Amino acid sequence: MILPIVAYGDPVLKKIAKDISKDYPKFDDLLENMFETMYNAYGVGLAAPQIGLPIRLFIIDTTPFSEDEDLSEEEQKVLNGFRRVFINAKIVEETGDEWAFNEGCLSIPDVREDVFRKPNIVMEYLDENFEPQKEAFDGLVARVIQHEYDHIDGVLFTDKLSSLKKRLIKGKLTNISKGKINVDYRMRFPDQKKKR
């Protein structure tokens, strides 16, 4: 089932999400719905807060990035078919020199800005079977993970922008929160309390 994506301005996007256990109700259905929702919106990641659930769960599938001809063949291979579920994730290490990449977000449509992040991370998380994992990620995969991880900590990519950039996009953000935007996927807007 395709769920509405929560728009910028909804308080759930600013909450620090809570851990979940393997007896979380209808978990398999939730995962299936999240993937369907993400693919319907042409996203590469989706966090539970973006569908209104303040829980530490996010999914990614970087396959669409693998078609970017500006990337090396090796990078394209890594991104192609990289699909994961992260439950109760924790970044335990971030290393390397920060680099900029133009990021966007399904909750903040039509806003894209350069965000600086470290290129290498080590994560501890539970997979979709609630099995513990510890893994290192780098490059674009690490970036997508960091972006989604921020969501479960109540942080949006716009929070990482300079105050000047924030002022420049303030009008766009206000319009998004009021539902004054055209998107080709379902959204839930905080100021309208209705779904589109």
TrEMBL record:
One GO MF annotation is: metal ion binding
Would the keyword Thylakoid turn up in this protein's UniProt record? no
Any one biological process term the GO annotation gives: translation
Source organism superkingdom: Bacteria
Q: Name one Pfam family in it.
A: Pep_deformylase
In terms of InterPro entries, this protein maps to:
Peptide_deformylase, Peptide_deformylase_sf
Q: Which UniProt keywords apply?
A: Hydrolase, Iron, Metal-binding, Protein biosynthesis
Q: Which residues form the active site?
A: 148
Binding of Fe cation occurs at: 105, 147, 151
Spell out the family assignment given in the record's similarity comment. Belongs to the polypeptide deformylase family.
| Root EC class | hydrolase
Q: Mind telling me which Gene3D superfamilies this protein's record contains? A: Peptide deformylase
Organism source for this protein? Pseudotamlana haliotis
Q: What does this protein do?
A: Removes the formyl group from the N-terminal Met of newly synthesized proteins. Requires at least a dipeptide for an efficient rate of reaction. N-terminal L-methionine is a prerequisite for activity but the enzyme has broad specificity at other positions.
Q: Which reaction does it catalyse?
A: N-terminal N-formyl-L-methionyl-[peptide] + H2O = N-terminal L-methionyl-[peptide] + formate
- Cofactor binding: number and manner: Binds 1 Fe(2+) ion.
Q: What is this protein called?
A: Peptide deformylase
* Cofactor(s) needed for function: Fe(2+)
Q: What is its EC number?
A: 3.5.1.88
Checking HAMAP family in the record gives: Pep_deformylase
Entry's PANTHER family?
PEPTIDE DEFORMYLASE
